């Protein structure tokens, strides 16, 4: 089975024969599907579902962090209506419509808070680069006049972050070094934001992950690096592989911070699993 791009959409092949077609027009937040058809002899075999899933995927319909809207003609009969309903399409204004609101992830919650609370940040630190998502966010936040430092102990994380930044036309000072050493590179009391996203590097060896032995000294260094009014963010993880040790140790450390110097927020998602990412914020007074 192969999906090929055509002048007006896509064609689904089985070996050398076209068994399905879809006419699609891209839209700013999704696409308008003018028609989708499978040859009668190939219906009820999953090919229509495959074709529609691919259209949704290619136009961002499964992106958890983006709002999308897809439209299609009203169904000709009840069976066709059930097919579209399975993928979230409902009648709206004389058409079928599939609207998807972005999920509120732990990462998005932290980034939205930082962008709203410190829109004019000038010096920011990504203490756990990973694949560069937070680093890129900080680069956009500070703009061309700001400064962003990124740390990760894994060379592949630094390489992945550098490639991501280059693709997006962004730049940061990247260090293949422990985040516990961030004060070697920035003066105390000068950073607006320090971000941590603990756990493991997505797409890499999951047997390599952060632990409290290095994470807590890095958090302490981050508080020293922050200016009054600055914010430290940390997303904590737990699970079958990494256990709960780091998460519980950091939570204990956060709750012991003196109120006269810091305000600490632990943002629990009440209806998520206990192992879901846990976003935390420390506001330095």
From TrEMBL:
SUPFAM superfamilies cross-referenced by the UniProt entry: Acyl-CoA N-acyltransferases (Nat) (SSF55729), S-adenosyl-L-methionine-dependent methyltransferases (SSF53335)
Enzyme superclass (EC): transferase
Keywords (A to Z) from UniProt: Acyltransferase, Transferase
EC number, UniProt record: 2.3.1.-
Stored Gene3D superfamilies: 3.40.630.30, Vaccinia Virus protein VP39
Domain N-acetyltransferase as annotated: residue spans: 1-114
Superkingdom of this protein's organism: Bacteria
Pfam families: Acetyltransf_7 (PF13508), rRNA_methylase (PF06962)
Gene Ontology molecular function: acyltransferase activity
Protein's name according to its UniProt entry: GNAT family N-acetyltransferase
